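Sanity check. The docking grid for NAP depends on where the pocket ends up, so I'm generating a full predicted complex first rather than guessing from homology. Inputs follow.
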Amino acid sequence: MHIVMTGATSGFGANAAGRLAAEGHRLTIGARRPDAVVPGWNAMALPLDLDDFASVDTFGDAVAKGPAIDALVLNAGLQTAALETGAEGYERTFAVNQLAHFRLLCRLLPQLAPGVRVILTGSGTHDPEEGTMVTPPAHANAEWLAFPDRDPTLPKGARSQAFRAYSSSKLANIMTARELARRRPDLAAMSFDPGYVPWTGLARSSGKILSSLVSLILPLTMKRDRKSTVAKSGEYLAALAAGPAYAGAHGDYWSVRNPALKRIEPSALARDDAACAKLWDDCERLLGLAKA
Ligand SMILES: NC(=O)c1ccc[n+]([C@@H]2O[C@H](COP(=O)([O-])OP(=O)(O)OC[C@H]3O[C@@H](n4cnc5c(N)ncnc54)[C@H](OP(=O)(O)O)[C@@H]3O)[C@@H](O)[C@H]2O)c1
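Predicted complex below; grid placement will be based on this.
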């Protein structure tokens, strides 16, 4: 298979990419540090900075001209310690995690033949019912997420605001997979919740000491079935991309429920089809992709 992937230079995404390469798949990896792609994989590493939409377009154009795609794995993501404005003027977490991936997806959609798998990495933090320590989303209003100063529901406190920006961006990823399945039922669209995976680079904005402490302490406070590892979540992500069991996905939400990967229902808002369609339309409008 030819697998196009973001987020393959660190964390469980790198583990998944290594597995896919070892299974003999051909990879095209978009990375802001292309030299971090492990030499020896059958991989072409192309520059991609999701914080820079010109870079997203250049990457999308190059991929569109390349060999046919069998799976598109949109796994890159970041979490910040406070709200930030990204290079494009939108809130950075929403811009990188959702808008840039959505832009890339829209660019590549005409190239995706029936049966192609599209996987967006979401997170259990999107669901208020999960009771994670991350402030849950209050809505999926793309304009408010892109411009938090317009959001009347913005929580107080830098940490809560940043946590909610993260969980909301992951909600948007999950809703995008669901809406993609409605718009392109010929594709195998799905989203992935890797569980809690300590010792990745995700919390790096909190600094090395705090993120190491979180990796040590948080698992002690969590239910056993929500804990994962880089190796386990890497194995599951690789299976979603290329394993025969997942070829027929249709907007499914796959969640690590240690020791298994289970198809479960996402949050009530993520199951709201009208909200999913509106989010798609609003992202198109924000990015200037809407047809007149
Ligand atoms: N760890 C968890 O507990 C957890 C739980 C739920 C969901 N997730 C999601 O899982 C995915 C992978 O996270 P992880 O925990 O493995 O974290 P990670 O080790 O920090 O990996 C994140 C990946 O995204 C890439 N990335 C970040 N910003 C980018 C940008 N501007 N342009 C291009 N690539 C960029 C990183 O590239 P660099 O190598 O250059 O940094 C890296 O490859 C993310 O979408 C995250 O939201 C993680």
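Relevant for the grid: The helical segments are 11-22, 53-65, 92-108, 142-146, 158-183, 208-221, 230-242, 273-286.
Also worth noting: Residues 2-196+228-286 form a domain with the Rossmann fold fold (CATH 3.40.50.720).
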